[in-house]
Specification:
- By secondary structure, this protein is α/β, with parallel strands linked by helices.
- 46% of the residues lie in helices and 20% in strands.
- Strands 1-2-9-6-5-3-4 form a 7-stranded mixed beta sheet.
- Strand 10 and strand 11 (323-329) form a beta hairpin.
- Helix 6 packs parallel to helix 10 (248-265), helix 9 packs across helix 10 and helix 12 runs antiparallel to helix 13 (330-340).
- It binds nicotinamide-adenine-dinucleotide.
- Nicotinamide-adenine-dinucleotide binds at residues 37, 39-40, 43, 58, 60, 63, 90-94, 96, 116-117, 119-120, 123-124, 127, 129, 138-139, 156-157, 159-160, 164, 167, 248.
- Nicotinamide-adenine-dinucleotide (NAD) binds next to helix 1, helix 4, helix 5, strand 8 and helix 6.
Length: 341
């Protein structure tokens, strides 16, 4: 098992990466209520049945204020109070929702996460961003509050669909591209073992990814500058996700390729590096080509919540493991998107 902590002015979050971590719930002394993703509860009933649980419906369409409201009511029925600790168990959807509920119910109760998807373990569960979607727009309502713990239980990944697992690999590749060239080389060498969920490789990959996210968040919790680099591939990725029926990681993979191509056009990244990124993305089984409607894509980017005024901040690659953030005026971006698609 690997252990690290994320320290912010609000306190410390313990992050553990290893097998069978969910068994640790029994050692917690607080009064617990688990908010568990429905599929996780179904697949791992034996682990969670001893606890009071609220089932979270699976699917992005349920990441809403309505779901949050339903959970508040269940918590009232269960007589939860300020000393009750909520534990969100599931992927990014469950932890985003559980974190938001815990931050707002009774003006905030203690909470922790057991992360059960690869995407959740390497990204979504770490960093204290909680929230829900509004009218189909991603994460429009939410807050920043760190959980007390995030346990990345690698054993639970065995029941995740292969497609969801691969979707998480997109975020892993992102860390190599934006931050750590040595990690990129490791991924190039070990992609087959990672795809086969070889425990040694998986533990290393989740630990390195989580440690990079921790380092970035510790230096910029509220996303004023540095944290923005984690959005590499996401400005276009979110726009793709909104009008194509693809998973988050699949959209991000495509978004990263388009952002790398743009970096190349702007003279920041050699063509060979764009091809290298495409190659590793393809080796994971992620999409490297999609039929995209540029006008629709542009309209979706316009609505991106990271738009400040009439500008969009775009994360570009500036060589191996390096990034550059550039602000584009909306009309400039329109022609860029038409060019890229
Ligand atoms: N807060 C953040 O910083 C942050 C960062 C990135 C993404 N996100 C959010 O994360 C969400 C996506 O997260 P995700 O990719 O983990 O998807 P998800 O939570 O929707 O889970 C994907 C699917 O896998 C199922 N599942 C989860 N764990 C399982 C397991 N162990 N076995 C079997 N099935 C399992 C779920 O029921 C669901 O059907 C999005 O809502 C996104 O906005 C948040």
């Amino acid at each position: 098992m690997q252990e690290m902590s994320l320290n912010t002015p609000d306190g410390a979050c313990e992050i553990l990466v290893g097998e069978h971590l969910s068994a640790r719930l029994k050692s917690l002394e607080q009064d617990l209520i688990l908010l568990v993703d429905e599929n996780v509860l179904c697949q791992h009933h034996d682990i969670f049945e001893a606890f009071r649980t609220i089932t979270l419906p699976s699917g992005e369409v349920y990441k809403t204020i309505q779901t949050v409201e339903n959970i508040y009511r269940e918590l009232v029925k269960l007589e939860a109070d300020r000393s009750t600790m909520l534990v969100g168990v599931g992927g990014g959807l469950a932890t985003d929702v559980a974190g938001f509920v815990a931050s707002t119910f009774l003006r905030g109760v203690p909470f922790g996460f057991i992360s059960t998807t690869l995407l959740g373990q390497v990204d979504a569960s770490i960093g204290g961003k909680n929230g829900v979607n509004l009218d189909g727009y991603k994460n429009m309502v939410g807050d920043f509050r760190q959980p007390s713990f995030v346990w990345c239980d690698l054993s639970l990944l065995s029941t995740l669909s292969h497609r969801e697992y691969v979707s998480g690999i997109a975020e892993v590749i992102k860390y190599g591209a934006i931050w750590d060239e040595g990690f990129m080389v490791y991924l190039e060498k070990h992609m087959d073992q990672l795809l086969a969920q070889d425990m040694k490789v998986l533990e290393h990959v989740v630990t390195v990814s989580a440690a990079i996210k921790v380092e970035v968040v510790e230096n910029d919790e509220r996303e004023s500058d540095l944290r923005r680099i984690l959005n590499f591939g996401h400005t276009l990725g979110h726009a793709i996700e909104r009008h194509q029926k693809v998973l988050h990681g699949e959209a991000v993979a495509m978004g990263m390729i388009l952002a790398a191509k743009l970096s190349n056009k702007l003279g920041l990244l050699p063509s060979a590096e764009v091809q290298r990124l495409q190659k590793i993305i393809a080796s994971a089984g992620l999409p490297v080509e999609m039929t995209l409607n540029p006008e629709e894509l542009f309209q979706n980017i316009r609505k991106d919540k990271k738009k400040s005024g009439e500008e969009i901040h775009f994360v570009l690659l500036d060589g191996r493991g390096k990034t550059k953030i550039k602000a584009f005026a909306l009309n400039e971006l329109k022609s860029i998107v038409h060019d890229l698609c």
